[in-house]
Amino acid sequence: MPYDADNYRYKNKLLIMKTFQTSIVLLGLTLLTTFSACKKESNPSPPVISLKSGSSYTPGGSVIAVGAPIRFGISASGSDANITNLVVKKIMPDGSIKVMLDSGMNASSFSFDRTFFQSVEDTAQWTFQVMDKNRQFATSALTIFKDPNSTWGGIYEFSSITMGYQGNTTVGQFLDPMSGKVYTADSALLNQALIHIVTYYYLDETIPSPTFSSAGEQGGAIADYYPSIAQWTIKNFTKWDISVDSDPVPPEAYEACHNDSLLIVSYDDVWGKRKFKWADPGDIIPFMTATGKKGLVRVITADHDAAGTIVFSLKIQQ
User: Fold this and answer.
1) Secondary structure E strands in the chain
2) 161-177, pLDDT tens digit by residue?
3) Which domains does the chain have, with CATH numbers?
4) What is the pTM of this model?
């Protein structure tokens, strides 16, 4: 074949262009790999956490009487990633750990205030830990001491209280646990600040559920049972300890209780939920009102009918 200079130059030019394009692609891949490697090798910064101070908060080293409130506040923010978890723990004198709060989230920053109550341990280190999406942690801690001069407080005792469910037109469904007085919906509307316990009944996946709740039931459907609650300006939120089956209060201890010692140690805020379902005769249920008063309910009878009643005894801190 005769030599064709133009054709040769054209093919050579194509070869140079392909070689250049390949080099560009390889260079891009090299840079991308290098960047990724550098990114993976870099150490992301952990989140930042700090304890709030001031007269509204309990400082480290405080000596607190049993049953008295302890108020903590923290501020936290993510550095390289959003915060996804907050855990509050107590480290006891024997080294055991009690989780007081474990809450998920997805926030670049947040502020947290919470009131707890001094229990019977002599000393406890409270730790506040946040974790971000990169699984980086930040922790802050302080130590609280029990007042050695703490004394047990008095309680109110009610041997038999009868409350109705939502379909009952003769027995009220709203309770002031400090007086043992039961209110109907109309009278409860006029005494909102006193109401800490509300009862209703429903079928939970076909299982009969006599239920203890409160006007402040968070995220619940309490207003579906009692529409008048939507008009309330004070909606006290009572928390119910649902660990009855796994950690029951002994009946003999309940009967022998005439001060607040048992009430304080029975309620565990970790298990404190917005309502107690499936209340059955014999159940002894710890609870804590919006004002921090701890108590115990012992179910005597519980009808399985929306027009029925539930009967129980009650003990609560004065």
Assistant:
1) 48-51, 63-64, 69-77, 83-91, 97-107, 109-117, 123-132, 137-146, 155-164, 174-176, 181-183, 197-204, 207-213, 239-241, 272-273, 284-288, 294-302, 309-317
2) 999 999 999 999 999 99
3) 48-146 (2.60.40.10), 155-317 (no CATH)
4) 0.74
